[in-house]
Amino acid sequence: MPVEPKSYPLEGKLKSITDKTLQQHRDVLYKGYVTNYNKVQDAIAKADPATANPHFSDFSEAKRREAWTHNGTILHDWYFENLGGGSNPGAKTKALIERDFGTHDKFVEHVTATGKATGVGWAVWAWSILDNKTHVYALDEHQNNCPIGVIPLLILDVFEHAYYGDRFTDRPGYIKDFWADVNWDAVEKRTGMIPG
Ligand SMILES: [Fe+2]
What is the pTM of this model? Predict the structure, then answer.
């Protein structure tokens, strides 16, 4: 079954981006990731695995784009899902933040710094199966520097397409206003996926 784009009616609710940027990001770029995820899956299904090699084949090329389209889709889903504001951190979210970062302010500082440190990609607060702690990861593009064995909790898009149309190079201003837009209820719901 092909993946279908989800609906994120966030117009008029966000401080960090304008409705125009939201619509370009959601209705053009995000939908493109979903379309291309389905295309890549279709290409893998049709390609002959016997032709696989590290140089070039239809199978090999589709495999190279699989993680890009997979992560590009789900990271956007979770980014839009954790926007909308109108809520405060829930009990599990607060407990994880205080345990792993000390205070909410320290947590915000850490995520903000990671968003500034990333070249083109994402800042992702996630729980790791490796040490049963949460960390903030700096993903390059969608699929590089991407840890496995983690459950994402809060997602921040720092590709230039997320803010450049509104703010040009002012990524720090975009991240600062992102905090007013976080839908903490969505974050709290994700903590329910942490085992134990
Ligand atoms: Fe994006």
Answer: 0.97
